[in-house]
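Appendix C reproduces, verbatim, an entry submitted by the partner laboratory led by Prof. M.T., so that reviewers can inspect both the input and the predicted structure.
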Amino acid sequence: MSSTGHEKTTHFGFEEVAWSEKARRVRGVFDSVAPKYDLMNDLMSGGLHRLWKSFTLSQTGLRPGQRALDVAGGTGDLAHGMAKQVGHDGLVVLSDINGAMLSHGRDRLIDQGQLSGLAYTQANAECLPFADASFDCVTIGFGLRNVTDKARAIASMRRVLKPGGQLLILEFSQPVAPGLKPVYDAYSFNVLPVLGQLVAGDAASYRYLAESIRKHPNQETLLGMMRDVGLEDCRYHNLSGGIVALHRGYRY
């Protein structure tokens, strides 16, 4: 984040844009990729995103009858899993700032037969429209790096947690396994845009997604941001050599 004259700026991938412009630019990306989002996730990760999400779900600690929120939930993988965990007496809210993604996620979950225990809200992660202490668990999977004000979003997610509730942030991070980074960079910048063009007809959006990962805070920086807003017992798990990390913190 920087400022030019009186106007604050932030990054949109490797491009510097006005602070007020990023949300609109991100919305354009996800309007474009929504129809092919799930297929592209499978192709880009070789199916690994399913394992990353499965691990995240194994860490929720949710019990039947509880309430959970999936922020920037996209097509609903985490929401679907949490709905099974809380059962018919619980509630999971799937939220996303992007209407196309939210609509696609709702249709997908209905097609999967998930008809009860789910609600849908179009919402900005930075100012969630829920009362304080509303949820036992809040998740955000591969969404935080697209948020303009990440610290504000983390604070907003903490606010809606009940005392004892947990925030789980699943996000691309910085590779830590020896020799992985150059291979990962080559794949991200050479293969992903080509896949995006071939499958979704949109190379630029997938180039942005690759760039946005590089601009996202690394593991320790994000851990500090969580602590700064008052989350406690914060820790993270590196997955796939640090390509992805799951950060966890509690509100007490």
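The chain has one domain: 23-176+208-251. Additional entries are available on request from the coordinating office.
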